Amino acid sequence: MSLSEQIQKDITTAMKARDEHRLSTLRMVKTALKNREIEKMAPLDDKESQQVLTTLIKQRKDSVEQFTKGGRQEMADKEAAEITLIEAYMPKPASEDQIVAGVREVIAEMGSPTMKEMGTVMKNVMARFAEAGIRVEGKQVSDAVRRELAGK
Question: Within this chain, do residues 64 and 44 fall inside the same structural domain, yes or no?
């Protein structure tokens, strides 16, 4: 079952359960996926769908930060709940140990890169995780690469 089909099935379930928050979040996700599909003019595969979800999660995290700064805790809580709901459709994120191991492998393959080559290291690490279908946050990878390169 594709990601879009699963979301549609869950929308129906949320309607029957009268779960308004879940329903509105899932509808928003479905709309984002549909808009991306229209832009592409072809059906999305699961990887592309996950990229859309990653974007939605990142937007929500930014919103939580802004609402918290602005003293709007109830709005921040709503956005945080949406993040949790959307993340349920994503693969499990990589652990800190997996990220560090991946960074060390790439650094070993590249010889001994310097801080100037951090961008290249980042690109290779992100590509490796994407190939494996493992979700990682760029900031975590960036921090790990910086630590490993500085440690040399």
Answer: yes
Mean pLDDT calculated for residue range 124-149: 80
CA–chain centroid gap for 34, Å, is 18
Q: Which of 18-27, 35-44, 123-132 is least confident?
A: 123-132
Rounded to whole angstroms, how far apart are CA atoms 51 and 54? 5
| CA R_g for the chain | 18
| pLDDT, average across residues 120-141 | 80
User: Which residue type occupies 141?
Assistant: V
Spatial separation of the C-alpha atoms in residues 32 and 53, rounded to whole Å: 8
**What is the span of the domain harbouring residue 24?**
3-87
**Cα separation of 126 and 105, whole Å?**
12
Q: Which two tokens stand for residue 65?
A: 């930060």
- Dist. CA 99–CA 6, nearest whole Å: 29
Tokens 């709940």, residue located: 81
DSSP helix/strand/coil, 135: strand
